[in-house]
């Protein structure tokens, strides 16, 4: 198992077990990965970095990209590499979440005033972000009104 990271933070103090090896940036892979290798790429940034990591790890048996929390490279759901499957996905939308855990379906979840999540709809295929956002927001306003505003003190009682 080879773990490449795309940030400048030193990982030398993180203990690894069982043949797992930090390799630094993807450009420092000790060899070209082959079908027996499992490669994890942590926190790739801009589009060109995703593409470079993809090119360098293409021969691996399995490549996993752990994307950054911001996801600032797209306004849609999913990553910048179209031929990769999102196996675990959690993205905040206004008043709720979009969630998927492979092999399950995509889900639109609304966040209730008490902090629980309510599943609204499941999708066989990756939905459009704007469709999920509208569904969640409309449901929240219709069912909870102003009592579901997590940013305003006194509304919903969560702050």
From TrEMBL:
Q: By its UniProt entry, which Pfam families does this protein fall under?
A: DUF1995
Please name the InterPro entries in this protein's record: DUF1995
Can you give the residue ranges of the DUF1995 domain? 81-132
Q: What is this protein called?
A: DUF1995 domain-containing protein
């Amino acid at each position: 198992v080879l773990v490449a990271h795309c940030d400048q933070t030193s990982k030398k103090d993180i203990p690894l077990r069982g043949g797992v090896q930090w390799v630094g940036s993807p450009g420092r892979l000790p060899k070209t990965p082959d079908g027996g290798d499992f490669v994890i790429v942590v926190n790739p940034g801009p589009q060109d970095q995703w593409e470079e990591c993809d090119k360098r790890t293409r021969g691996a048996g399995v490549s996993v990209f752990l994307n950054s929390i911001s996801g600032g490279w797209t306004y849609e759901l999913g990553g910048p590499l179209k031929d990769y499957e999102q196996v675990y996905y959690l993205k905040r939308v206004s008043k709720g979440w979009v969630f998927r855990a492979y092999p399950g379906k995509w889900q639109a979840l609304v966040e209730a005033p008490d902090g629980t999540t309510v599943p609204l709809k499941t999708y066989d295929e990756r939905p459009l972000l704007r469709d999920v956002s509208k569904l969640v927001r409309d449901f929240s306003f219709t069912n909870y009104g102003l009592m579901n505003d997590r940013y305003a003190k006194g509304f919903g009682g969560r702050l």
